[in-house]
Amino acid sequence: MTEKYILKKDHLQPFLRKLKKSHQLVAPVQNRHGDTLFTEIDNLDKVHIDLDNQPQNSLKRFFFPQQEVLFTYHNPARDSYYFETVADESAPTLYFGVRPCDMSALLYMDVVFLKNARDPNYLHKRQNNILVGLNCNEPFANCFCNATRNGPFIDFGFDLQLTDLGDRFLVEYDRSRGQEIISSWRQFFAEAAESDVKAQYQAFLEARGKFRLQVHLDQAVKKLAEDEVPESVWEELSMRCQDCGGCAYICPTCTCFTIRDQPISDSDGERVRAWDACTFSGFTLMAGDHNPVDRQMRGIEKRFRHKLQFDVKKDNRPSCVGCGRCVNICFGGTDIVRFINMTCCGNI
Amino acid sequence: MPSQLLELYLPKAAEIQEVIEENSQIKTFVLAFVDPEYNDGFSYEPGQFLMVSVPHCGEAPISISSTPVNRGTVHLSVRRAGKLTEAMHDMHKGDVLALRGPYGRPFPMASLVGRDLLFVAGGIGLAPLRSVINTCLATGHERSITILYGSRTPSDIAFKADLQAWGQRDNVSCQLTVDRAEPGWDGAVGLVTALLGHCTLAPHETKALLCGPPMMIRAVLGQLADRGFADQDIITTMERHMKCAVGICRHCHMDDKLVCKDGPVFTLEELKQLNVMELQG
Amino acid sequence: MTNSINEIENAQVILVIGSNTSEAHPQVARRMFTAMDRGARLIVIDPRRTLLARRADIHLAIRPGTDIPLLNAMMRVILDENLADDLFIEMRTENFYGLRDMLFRLDLEEAAGICGVDLARIRAAAQLYGRAQKAVICYCLGITQHVCGTSNVQSIANLAMMTGNVEKEDTGVDPLRGQNNVQGACDMGALPNVFPSYQQVDNDDYREKFERAWNVSLPPKPGLTLMQMTHGGKDGQLKAMFIMGENPVLSDPVISKVEETLDNLEFLLVADIFLTETARRAHVVLPAASFAEKTGTFTNSERRVQMVRQVIPPLGQSRTDADIIMDLSARLGYVMDYEGPAEIMEEIAMLAPIYGGMHHDQLENSWGLQWPCWDREHDGTPFLHKYYFTRGRGRFVPAVHEPPAELPDDDYPFLLITGRIYHQYHTGTMSRHSPLLSREAGEALLQLHPEDGRRLGLRSGDMVRMRSRRGEVQVKAQLTETVKTGEVYTTFHFSEMPINLLTISAKDHFSQCPEYKVCAVHLEKV
Questions:
Q1: What DSSP designation does B70 have?
Q2: What is the CATH number of the domain that holds B162?
Q3: Together in a domain, B149 and B203
Q4: Which residues from A are below 8 Å from C54, CB to CB?
Q5: CB contact under 8 A, A293 and B277
Q6: Which of these, A262, A261, A257, A318, lies nearest to A64 by C-alpha position?
Q7: Cβ-nearest to B96 among A80, A124, A302
């Protein structure tokens, strides 16, 4: 069993203040309009770190920005074409208050960006950061991480993991860096008592019973693998999809991107990488207007198959982490939960 | 970070040594990297492709049409199709573009040794096969080689110099056909499948390599199956929209496969596991 | 809209006419889908088989410009089948006999023939709509951009009133407004004949109220309509124009006439966030601030007034619209001294009764208020005409068919319909700056039926030379069964293919809205 510690809630702010001296701090902050978002924090005393609401964004953009310049290009003459890399200025960062879904999504992004090839921009942002997670005692309205099996509690991937026990947090570590942090800042951490560990277990049991959605994800996975999803499901969903790309942008595991040239002058420009979505027809459109995917009938199919079929086939687990954000953002009613319900329970 | 890592997306400048006008739509660009050291060390295998950068036009995947046996330059045969290829067609000897690669799984050259070879190509589809054919010939492939090439009209026939050279080899049979004849054309008119019908082939001893428009591929596949070709002996190369070429961006997905990494070369056996538009009527 | 957008979710029958809702108003289409999930039936009246039409229970693919005979036929069926709401007609309306007499003279077969729709389908649609307890009609520019646009709207009103489908929650007539604040612009009197809150300029009481407030004398005569301004030509009445956030060089019909008009002005001033085709012709261009650079309100389709807040200060030399107007006014000798948008809103609340309670502090931290909102105590109005129509009783105005100004003939055998697509916005001034949107839709496509394509020797992707009596453009063909034979459809977003070179200047007699939806063209392969 890993060693467990207690951090008093009163001591959270002082603890973060210490870590903030060497790290940029990113945490869920409620802004003046009432929206909670993962935000870079300059002044710890001027913001409200909100651990009661689900952050509307995931950590995706911190590691994989919506737009980033890969390099600049220069073409001063027809016989001269050269490139200059752009230094990535991102500093070592502490991510605080990361829920199990977002933590799992980050581990999935590691596979995407580092397995086939090592993406330099991602790797740079992924190095030298500290991940402090928070288990979910109270799943949010659209959460279904119990169905994707990566929540509501998680026991790997983080440096430190907190569980809310009322006036204190139970603290665990997974990686050696977490252990180092605890030993460097011993004054904040007391060893957990047997009763604290029991309380954590109780919180876990209770949290598992608090999900409001019932999502038969494993059944959908099975139906996809056995090719038993009725054609009418794809057709209905594709026709309803309003092609806004919101699901892909908000999704913590949607990592498809495009690369394009952004001219600055006649001779210079930037090669930019930006988020893309497989639901767009331009995603697969080839030169000469030839498209291997019929968006109107099948546009949305790739997205669900990728998450629930192809990734399962490859890595033996779906790449949906059950955060429920797409349920909230989709205005055509074609989110993944709707798909799973249509597939498993008929049209609802 | 090691410099190799930083260069994942960074192309290398290459100078156009020569432009060969294959027909009104296709040009072959003979290229050499501007950095001589890099150029000397550059190698690839038939079936692989390069990401080509043209200023302000981004990148596009283009399959290599030359043979790696001839070192020093690399050939890219490009059909006018979109913004980037249009811009390339406006480039001349001495102009510089940039390349990144080579990428992709090449043709299984070792498995071709000791087998009869059938190449079926349509239009620009001959480009990647040209790389294979010239490599086979340069490395002394002894068994018979049949090349069937379809074009729209006689003036659309590309790679004329190669076709002529191949035709002069003893073990090579090179046959052309066009969709529409023009005055002076006394060759075959019709689809490549008609040519295929007249070929004597030993299906169990032959590897078939195809590249061309989906319609052609479907027709040829049907005929090869009828004649008893096994799926693993039929090899083709796929084309998809591509951005990163290193297996991350997923533009070139075909189910759980990525054309840039798992392809572009696939056997029919592999393609049948997937939901591929080209194979569907 | 007489309804709120959310009310559509609860309708039993939704009649969509002249609106490609899922492309042009996706947020409204979303509510239609939800309603259908709950069992609602959908009737779509559209010449094209749009995505929404394919989902409809009944799609009536009418000939463009034949809405009145179709609606009249539906009303006649409703009368015949005894589905009219007699109590509602009695209590809330007037001149029903005028309508009834006209309908009784209507020959149903003939009407169906004019529309090119099977009478049995018209009957089915009429029965479906007439029997509903709660029915909503959504219409858009397919109704208004015709020479008979006003009569089209009146016919829709006739249908709704005759069946009592107004004045109730989840029931009504909903024109879908295209732009985020076009409703607000109209509310604020950006129309030739009214002051803010639709107070007529030729009404002495209203005019005096504004004269007192602004301490100036105001002309009692309504101003010029858009077409009168931009189509004046060489001898136009205007010497100078100040155009804010509008690109008539691309968006108005008969572009050549617009260009001639603007080029003959003594002074043209344009304020826009980008250098548009119109701005390029200006003597002076003022860079304007975008939505993210200013504080104020937008009023949407459902009359909801919402706050928009400044996120970043105006970039470069750009300035907010209010700053531009105040500064300009001061230099012209009339000082407009407002501390900021909140003070302007206070004045609006004082002068525009429907905005009476809409102060910034009331709108802050909420989803806004729907007008009419008479005072600070008022909660706003989710649906209109409860208890009575604005004008008292709802008046039936019977209408008869008026064919489009220009129909196909031997020289120009195709009927051109113009419209919009999902990925581009109006003249593309903003949306074409997005590489992703341009990738999705980077050029105009001319939809034509495969049969017509075959006859002209056209395949998808071929370039077509399209000519009308007014001009010529080249555009790429897209063969699709979305359109009927003899009809073609394209969009006006792209300056490289300025479709409004071709469209006609014929316009509605009352609203002066141009007939963008119908003109005759000739096609040939390039």
A1: S
A2: 3.40.50.80
A3: yes
A4: 239
A5: yes
A6: A257
A7: A80
| Min Cα separation C440/chain A (Å) | 5
Subunits adjacent to chain B (3 or more Cβ pairs under 8 Å): A
Q: What is the CATH number of the domain that holds B86?
A: 2.40.30.10
- In C439-486, where do the E strands start and end? 445-448, 463-467, 472-479
Name the segment(s) of chain C with CATH classification 2.40.40.20: 414-525
DSSP-assigned letter for residue B58: E
Chain C: touching chains (3 or more CB pairs < 8 Å): A
Could you tell me the maximum CA-CA distance found in chain B, to the nearest angstrom?
A: 62
Which residues on chain A are in Cβ contact (under 8 Å) with B1? 120, 123-124
Tell me the two tokens of residue A216: 């038969």
CATH 3.40.228.10 domain span(s) along chain C: 5-176
Chain A partners of C27 at a C-beta cutoff of 8 Å?
Answer: 331
CB neighbours of residue B17 within 10 Å: 15
CATH T-level assignment (fold) for domain C178-223+295-372: Rossmann fold (3.40.50)
> To 5 degrees, how large is the angle CA A82–CA A88–CA A89?
135
Judged by DSSP in three states, B126 sits in helix
As annotated, the residues of chain C forming the CATH 3.40.50.740 domain(s) are: 178-223+295-372
| C239 DSSP 8-state letter | S
- Residue C511's pLDDT band (boundaries 50, 70, 90)? confident
Residues of A with a Cβ under 8 Å from any C Cβ are 33-34, 239-240, 242-244, 258, 260, 262, 274, 276, 280-282, 285, 289, 296, 331-333
Its sign, for the CA torsion A318, A324, A330, A334, is positive
Cα nearest neighbour of A239 on chain C: C51
Same domain as B117, residue B221:
yes
Q: Identify the three-state secondary structure at position B208.
A: strand
CB pairs under 8 A between A and B: 125
Task: Answer yes or no: CATH 3.40.228.10 is held by domain C5-176.
Answer: yes
Residues B149, B207 within the same domain: yes
| Peptide linkage before C372 cis (omega within 30 of 0) | yes
CB of A83 within 8 Å of a chain B CB? The answer is yes
Instruction: Please name the residues in contact with A28: beta carbons below 8 A apart, sequence gap of 6 or more.
Output: A36, A37, A38, A39, A49, A50, A51, A53, A55, A97
Alpha-carbon span C127 to A235, nearest angstrom: 29
Note the pTM of the prediction, 2 decimals: 0.87
List chain A pLDDT tens, one digit each, 348 residues: 458 999 999 999 999 999 999 999 999 999 988 899 999 999 999 999 999 999 999 999 999 999 999 999 999 999 999 999 988 888 899 999 999 999 999 999 999 999 989 999 999 999 889 999 999 999 999 999 999 999 899 998 999 999 999 999 999 998 888 999 999 999 999 999 999 999 999 999 999 999 999 899 999 999 999 988 888 888 888 888 888 899 999 999 999 999 999 999 999 999 999 999 988 888 888 776 777 777 667 778 889 999 999 999 988 899 999 999 999 898 888 899 999 998 887 544
Q: Are B93 and B207 members of one domain?
A: no
Burial letters C375-390, b for 16+ CB under 10 A, else e: eeeeebbbbbbeeebe
| Cα distances (Å, whole numbers) of residue C470 to C446, C473, C520, C522 | 18, 10, 10, 11
Say if residue C184 is exposed, middle or buried (CB neighbours under 10 Å; 0-12, 13-18, 19+): buried
- The residue among B57, B86, B103 that closes a domain is B103
Q: Is A303 on the interface with B (CB under 8 A)?
A: no
Range of the domain at B151: 109-237
Task: Find the closest chain A residue to C32 by CA distance.
Answer: A332
- Yes or no: is domain C414-525 CATH 3.40.640.10? no
Given an 8 Å threshold on Cβ–Cβ distance, is B249 in contact with A311?
no
